[in-house]
């Protein structure tokens, strides 16, 4: 090869790593190596390899977390070839969601490995003009150049980002010819809105365009968001979710974001808002710039904030509505000292998950939470303190970490703890995770399903978990006294919870009318601003001390 390419091998098994490195070096590559994701991330930052060969299951930082950390904000992401002993479908889907194309199962077939490495490096030498071989979609750098040019002359532009809902599930079903047909359909639809007909590839299943001046003041037709394609002789429907942002470069908040940061933040926002809620149209204006800025700030500064103790816990009491007494509390995370103002978890927890910091963040929460509950039980021996674990943390050894923290505890505070998992995080449940949770429950720790009714959990998941607590999402509580359908949904959820032997807790209760309606439907426990706002630990302790 005329120009020697650099390949990084990240593998915790010394023998496998040595064999892979030898094969790659013999094939003419410059080879770097690391024992886990943490070392691998440092090597990427120092040497900028052309490709990473990476194991999935590793200590400290696994392969998926490394991939997310490496390619978080990169316009030209480093390709990964993933290795694993787990040939299961869940890992393959997880990898493809993160952009992994090559996924090899151990024991490694070195001929396949070398072919995958050569192919991926060759594909990375993409044209500076086009995002793919079809020549239909222009590349990211050209979009960013256009936005930066507008920024220099302070010219307003309208950007539209479009993603195919459930793109992964659709693309898996398509043959190569059908995939090309899909791309052609997308280009035909979007080019009608695009300045000079130019549509830019942003990520798999996601495209961007600068909107034509004559369409910016009008609504996007609903027909633009629903389409169909022939797959194996059967017509299959697919939908777009779209985001439009009016980019006013005179805005001080916006000018703090460069073009790349702006579009990346919009793409992430579109992904989160449209997840599980297809065919969304999102309009972002001046009021939304702060949200974009906050997301970017969190991505850049969260790691240091965790290390320097800049975060804090506050506590929102849980109330027995029949007696009015405090029976528990939920530990909530805040970032009060951020340079752009107080940040809520809605901004920095998703950033932690994207950066592979969720497990580190949850360990920090656990250490502070255990200190707090030891003080609470002095005044309320039966109080329950709940806290949320992210789906990423479930698979990163955090339940086992909590178990280790509690095993030598003389106070027996495990019975005062309640782990909250969301319905959507149940996809991270593995036999190992379930075993770690089972050990905690043997100590007395309870399990709660948070935001119940908002995710994708099946009854099979709930049966496996045998949760003691179900928390009803605030979206069902807000209009419970005005909307009959909300009251019926809540009544059904309460009936299901009772049938499973679960306690029901309603979240987001803000009025007496809501509290009364919930109590009449059979929900005894609740939390929300009507009872108490989140408060520092010393204020909660004062409430518990009061007669």
From TrEMBL:
Coiled coil: none
Alphabetic keyword roster: Phosphoprotein
Response regulatory domain span: 6-121
Modification 4-aspartylphosphate occurs at: 55
UniProt-listed PROSITE patterns: EAL (PS50883), RESPONSE_REGULATORY (PS50110)
Cross-referenced Gene3D superfamilies: 3.40.50.2300, EAL domain
Sequence ranges assigned to domain EAL in this UniProt record: 295-547
Protein's name according to its UniProt entry: EAL domain-containing response regulator
């Amino acid at each position: 090869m005329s120009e020697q390419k650099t390949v990084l091998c990240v593998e915790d098994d010394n023998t496998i790593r040595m064999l892979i490195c030898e094969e790659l070096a013999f094939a003419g590559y410059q080879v770097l190596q690391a024992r886990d994701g943490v070392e691998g991330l440092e090597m990427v930052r120092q040497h900028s390899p052309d490709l990473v060969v990476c194991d999935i299951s590793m200590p400290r930082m696994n392969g998926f977390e490394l991939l997310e950390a490496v390619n978080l904000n990169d316009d030209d992401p480093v390709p990964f070839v993933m290795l694993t002993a787990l040939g299961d479908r869940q890992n393959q889907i997880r990898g493809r969601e993160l952009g992994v194309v090559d996924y090899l199962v151990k024991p490694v077939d070195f001929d396949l490995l070398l072919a995958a490495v050569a192919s991926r490096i060759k594909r990375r030498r993409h044209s500076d003009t086009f995002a793919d071989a079809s020549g239909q979609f222009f590349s990211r750098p050209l979009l960013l150049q256009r936005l930066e040019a507008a920024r220099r002359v302070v010219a307003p532009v309208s950007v539209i980002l479009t993603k195919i809902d459930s793109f992964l599930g659709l693309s898996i079903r398509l043959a190569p010819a059908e995939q090309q047909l899909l791309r052609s359909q997308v280009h035909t639809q979007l080019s009608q809105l695009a300045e000079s007909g130019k549509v830019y590839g942003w990520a798999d299943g996601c495209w961007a365009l600068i909107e034509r001046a004559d369409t910016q003041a009008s609504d996007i037709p609903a027909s633009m968001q629903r389409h169909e394609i022939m797959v194996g002789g059967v017509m299959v429907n697919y939908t777009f979710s779209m985001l439009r942002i009016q980019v006013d470069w005179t805005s001080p908040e916006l000018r703090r974001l460069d073009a790349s940061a702006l579009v990346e933040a919009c793409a992430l926002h579109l992904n989160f808002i449209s997840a599980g809620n297809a065919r969304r149209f999102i309009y972002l204006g001046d009021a939304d710039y702060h949200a974009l800025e906050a997301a970017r700030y969190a991505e850049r500064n969260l790691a240091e904030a965790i290390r320097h103790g800049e975060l804090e816990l506050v506590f929102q009491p849980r109330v027995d509505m029949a007696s009015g007494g405090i029976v528990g509390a939920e530990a909530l995370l805040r970032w009060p000292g951020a340079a752009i103002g107080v940040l809520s978890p809605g901004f920095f927890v998703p950033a932690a998950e994207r950066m592979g910091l969720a497990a580190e963040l949850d360990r920090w929460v656990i250490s502070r939470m255990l200190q707090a509950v030891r003080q609470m039980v002095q005044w309320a021996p039966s109080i329950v303190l709940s806290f949320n674990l992210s789906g990423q943390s479930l698979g990163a050894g955090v339940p086992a970490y909590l178990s280790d923290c509690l095993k030598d505890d003389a106070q027996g505070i495990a019975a005062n703890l309640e782990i909250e998992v969301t319905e959507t995080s149940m996809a991270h449940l593995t036999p190992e995770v379930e075993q770690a949770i089972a050990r905690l429950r043997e100590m007395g720790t309870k399990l709660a399903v948070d935001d119940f009714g908002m995710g994708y959990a099946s009854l099979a998941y709930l049966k496996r978990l045998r949760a003691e607590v179900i928390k009803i999402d605030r979206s069902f509580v807000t209009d419970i006294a005005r909307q009959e359908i909300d009251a019926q949904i809540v009544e059904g959820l309460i009936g299901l919870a009772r049938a499973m032997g679960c306690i029901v807790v309603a979240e987001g209760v803000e009025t007496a009318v809501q509290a009364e309606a919930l109590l009449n439907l059979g929900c005894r426990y609740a939390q929300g601003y009507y009872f108490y706002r989140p408060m520092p630990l010393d204020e909660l302790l004062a409430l518990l001390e009061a007669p």
